[in-house]
């Protein structure tokens, strides 16, 4: 099996999560050996760990994309005229449990992981019953203070309510353990139960556990006046006060925990039958997997298409009509959309379980049908995007059904378990483990999702802004209006227009064209009258529509103000919008927009068997982010054992490495410029060790000068001393040495070409001085391994070895860049520098919890279920211990608003500590 670059990167995330099958690992190792970019990408994953613990919106590009290219890409992916393909996005950065164990994960367009822990023995919590009800308070303040901040002695402590609950002592219990289990002071257990100071308890004894209340507030929502925050040494939101504007709901004594049972893989026969049941008769066609070892079939009758992903009951319906796909302009009411979607689904027998409907805020005309389990919603992801849930339908402005996604979920009960009350769950936010038992998400203001595309008139002189390129289909000269997927062949006065075609990677020249757009048989062409290059870039802004003196303006959130011509009449004054187009400079800057939408554009991720997908958004800088994670479940603590020294039979403490060759990657973690720690990662060369592990952590006094050898091959002698919390073996290093003594990382300038040597293709690099060598990580690759195009000027960083291939010396390629006019006169080598991660990093593009300040109000509290999406899952996930990721667990969901209108959502695990892995 040969991997593409995208598949290799997806596999890297799965490997980091411990979720990669052995045969896929072999293919990944082969790809990494041949591909420098993917190898460096793999090393960069480690550097993200610190920031991802506090922010979903961490970014990690190797280079900053040109803003014009970014705007173009954003425009193309944000248009509604696209085909949902249930892509296998792998942006998860789960801390691996073991190789082959499925972990629940969260990632943004950018990356998030649910922390997975190995189950440990713990006493069973049993017979927890409420002995009273929590008194309703119309408004209460809640503010877990910052970690390690000094606590004022004048700050009031939590006050126990008059509603303690009972708990029956079981074998192994201690007062200290019970106190930690329910997050109450040990002294309060002693006081409430009249125990001696040494807190002697016995099996079967019933204890009263106090429930700590939050300080009440007056019921004025508009001007909340907190009387004082909780005084605790830890917390998720150090600068935020959260008020409760609803009564705390009653909690059941226990709930049922479920496990999903995955069906058999789809086959041609089952796909054809499932399609026929839905009225689509056609011949199944198997298509190439988008990642991992997925099974994909498509069945079409020429009018509609069903695309099956892995299972016969998991598919995407496509009406194969671009007019239906174009969901723009004024849409029907949500009630009308629901009625149309229900008629469509009921006619096909698909709404056969309890459900509730809700709008999909990121999709115009989108309706999500939420499965109810025991009357509680089942949620498959974090953020507004949610993930590949049960059923989703889009309805266009004419009431036609567009895309439909469907994924059946078979929930099998595991057993009934006690849960925390809403108040007890909330108190987890003040605990030092808050980030491993809860998640939060910040969203922009709420409004109806709509999209408008610029309506260019036909057969009349009009101005256009975009870029010139060659058609991908026939090489004809075409014009792309900025941010739209349209591609118009050009004719007329086009002499010299070819100079506007981009020549360098990331370079796009804006072209201003005067001409007439005409249409024949549905195909549009642009007749050019005249044209000029424009000193401007494509732009994407979020802001408010302002209508003044008969003109329309965009007040962008960065303080700029632009004139908006030809604004749709249905776009109201004061609307919060995302605008894509070109800003034309002038005394009054004009935003020549191509698309406008009121989409929430909030981040969101799915939780799936093999990696989180989706995420990211383009809203205001102080929204669209979040953090936290959920601990894995440990539902049978009485049979669990302590973490073994042997992890899945792959590595054992005491294992010895004798001169194993690999590459060292160093990551330095800082906070506000002060170094906190550094990780020395050691990526083993394939075949260099009998261990199944690809990477280790190195430690020991022998590493005193290891930074000198960043990104270089070394040989290591040492022993496995322990298994790190993230599941990586730690090597206590006795000594190390360079694999290629005396060699240092150098930079060369030259050109690349594909050659075939010893029966394999590879990239031959020729320097300006005529020196030639083979790039090691391209051996066995193809032309896709070229940087740029054949003959382009390339700067290549790396290490020249004593090895040869096909008669040429071998060069370990580490980094490359390209472009006309490059030279080495001022070039600085970067591949020999450790990665530096500031754990306190915060910017406009990537906020942190420190940016959450002021007052927020919780307006709704609901008990719900968290489940894994079946996207990327396979039947192998049913097997123990892989099934751990398929548990469906209860959680408390708190939703509300900030004072400025932004929304937030906090989800907290509802099971007691005894049923969560530590």
Short description:
By secondary structure, this protein is mainly beta. Helices cover 11% and strands 35% of the residues.
Structural features, described:
- By secondary structure, the protein is mainly beta.
- Helix content is 11%, strand content 35%.
- Helix 1 runs parallel beside helix 3 (36-47).
- The protein is globular, with a radius of gyration of 29 Å.
- Mean pLDDT is 74; it is low at 43-162, 212-234, 610-619, 639-650 and 840-846.
Core attributes:
12 helices; 18-stranded mixed sheet; 49 strands; mainly beta
Distance between the termini: 38 Å
Radius of gyration: 29 Å
Describe the largest sheet. Answer: 18 strands, mixed
Mean pLDDT: 74
| SS field, number of helical segments | 12
Helix content: 10-25%
Alpha-beta classification: mainly beta
Strand content: 35-45%
Q: Quaternary arrangement of the chains shown? A: single chain
- Overall body shape: globular
Stretches where pLDDT is under 50 for at least 5 consecutive residues are 43-162, 212-234, 610-619, 639-650, 840-846
Task: Give the strand tally.
Answer: 49
């Amino acid at each position: 099996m040969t991997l593409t670059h995208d598949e290799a990167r997806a596999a890297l995330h799965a490997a980091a999560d411990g979720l990669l099958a052995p045969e896929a690992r072999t293919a990944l190792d082969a790809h990494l050996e041949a591909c420098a970019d993917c190898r460096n990408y793999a090393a960069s994953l480690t550097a993200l760990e610190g920031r991802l613990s506090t922010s979903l919106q961490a970014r990690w590009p190797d280079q900053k994309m040109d803003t014009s290219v970014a705007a173009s890409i954003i425009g193309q992916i944000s248009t509604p005229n696209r085909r949902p393909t249930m892509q296998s996005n792998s942006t998860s950065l789960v801390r691996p449990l073991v190789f082959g164990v499925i972990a629940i994960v969260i990632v943004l367009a950018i990356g998030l992981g649910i922390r997975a822990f190995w189950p440990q023995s713990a006493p069973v919590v049993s017979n927890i019953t409420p002995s009273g009800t929590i008194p309703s308070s119309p408004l209460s303040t809640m503010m877990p203070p910052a970690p390690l901040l000094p606590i004022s002695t004048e700050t009031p402590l939590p006050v126990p309510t008059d509603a303690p609950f009972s708990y029956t002592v079981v074998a192994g219990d201690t007062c200290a353990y019970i106190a930690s289990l329910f997050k109450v002071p040990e002294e309060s257990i002693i006081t409430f139960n009249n125990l001696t100071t040494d807190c002697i308890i016995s099996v079967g004894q019933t204890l009263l556990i106090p429930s700590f209340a939050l300080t009440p507030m007056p019921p004025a929502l508009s001007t909340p006046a907190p009387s004082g925050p909780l005084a605790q040494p830890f917390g998720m939101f150090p600068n935020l006060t959260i008020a409760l504007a609803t009564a705390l709901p009653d909690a059941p004594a226990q709930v049922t925990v479920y496990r999903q049972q995955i069906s058999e893989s789809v086959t041609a026969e089952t796909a054809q039958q499932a399609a026929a049941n839905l009225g689509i008769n056609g011949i199944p066609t198997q298509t190439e997997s988008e990642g991992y070892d997925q099974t994909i079939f498509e069945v079409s009758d020429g009018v509609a298409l069903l695309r099956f992903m892995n299972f016969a009951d998991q598919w995407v319906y496509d009406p194969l009509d671009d007019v239906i796909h174009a969901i723009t302009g004024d849409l029907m009411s949500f009630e009308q959309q629901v009625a149309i979607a229900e008629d469509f689904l009921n006619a096909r027998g698909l709404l056969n379980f309890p459900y509730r409907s809700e709008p999909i805020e990121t999709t115009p005309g989108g309706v999500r049908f939420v499965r109810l389990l025991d009357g509680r919603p089942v949620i498959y992801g974090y953020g507004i995007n949610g993930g590949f849930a049960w059923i989703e339908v889009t309805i266009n402005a004419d009431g036609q059904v567009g895309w439909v996604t469907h994924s059946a979920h078979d929930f099998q009960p595991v057993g009934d378990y006690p849960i925390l009350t809403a108040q007890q769950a909330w108190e987890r936010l003040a605990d030092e483990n808050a980030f491993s038992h809860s998640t939060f998400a910040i969203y922009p203001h709420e409004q109806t999702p709509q999209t408008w595309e610029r309506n260019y008139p036909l057969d009349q002189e009009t101005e256009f802004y975009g870029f010139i390129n060659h058609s991908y289909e026939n090489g004809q000269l075409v014009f792309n209006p900025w941010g739209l997927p349209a591609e118009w062949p050009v004719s007329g006065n086009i002499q010299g227009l070819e100079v506007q075609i981009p020549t360098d990677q990331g370079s796009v020249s804006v072209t201003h064209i005067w001409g007439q757009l005409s249409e024949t048989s549905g195909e549009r062409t642009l007749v050019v009258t005249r044209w000029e290059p424009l000193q401007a870039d494509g732009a994407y802004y979020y802001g408010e529509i302002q209508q003044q003196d008969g003109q329309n303006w965009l007040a962008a959130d960065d303080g700029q103000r632009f004139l908006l011509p030809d604004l749709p009449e249905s776009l109201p004054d004061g609307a919060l919008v995302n605008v894509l187009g070109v800003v034309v400079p002038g005394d009054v800057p004009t935003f020549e927009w191509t698309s406008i939408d009121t989409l929430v554009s909030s981040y969101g991720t799915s939780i799936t068997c093999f990696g989180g997908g989706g995420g990211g958004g383009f809203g205001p800088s102080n929204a669209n982010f979040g953090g936290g994670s959920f601990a894995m479940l440990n539902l049978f603590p009485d049979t669990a054992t302590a973490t073994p020294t042997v992890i899945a039979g792959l590595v054992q403490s005491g294992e010895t490495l004798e001169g194993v060759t690999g590459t060292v990657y160093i990551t330095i973690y800082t906070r506000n410029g002060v170094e906190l720690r550094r990780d020395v990662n050691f990526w083993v060369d394939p075949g260099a060790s009998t261990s199944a592990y690809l990477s280790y952590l190195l430690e020991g006094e022998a590493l005193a000068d290891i930074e000198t050898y960043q990104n270089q091959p070394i040989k290591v002698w040492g022993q496995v001393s322990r298994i790190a919390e993230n599941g990586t073996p730690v090597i206590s290093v006795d000594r190390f040495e360079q694999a290629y003594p005396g060699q240092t990382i150098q930079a060369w300038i030259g050109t690349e070409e594909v050659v075939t040597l010893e029966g394999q293709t590879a990239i031959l690099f020729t320097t300006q001085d005529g020196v030639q060598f083979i790039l090691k990580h391209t051996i066995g690759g193809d032309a896709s391994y070229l940087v740029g195009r054949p003959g382009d000027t390339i700067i290549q960083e790396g290490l020249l070895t004593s090895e040869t291939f096909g008669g040429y010396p071998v060069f370990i390629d580490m980094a490359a860049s390209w472009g006309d006019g490059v030279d080495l006169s001022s070039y600085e080598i970067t591949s020999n520098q450790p990665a530096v991660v500031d754990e306190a990093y915060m910017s406009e593009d990537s906020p942190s919890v420190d940016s959450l300040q002021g007052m927020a109000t919780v307006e709704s509290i609901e008990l719900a279920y968290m489940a894994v999406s079946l996207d990327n899952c396979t039947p192998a996930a049913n097997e123990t211990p892989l099934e751990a990721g398929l548990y469906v667990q209860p959680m408390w969901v708190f939703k509300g608003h900030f004072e400025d209108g932004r929304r937030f959502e906090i989800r907290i695990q509802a099971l007691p500590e005894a049923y969560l892995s530590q």
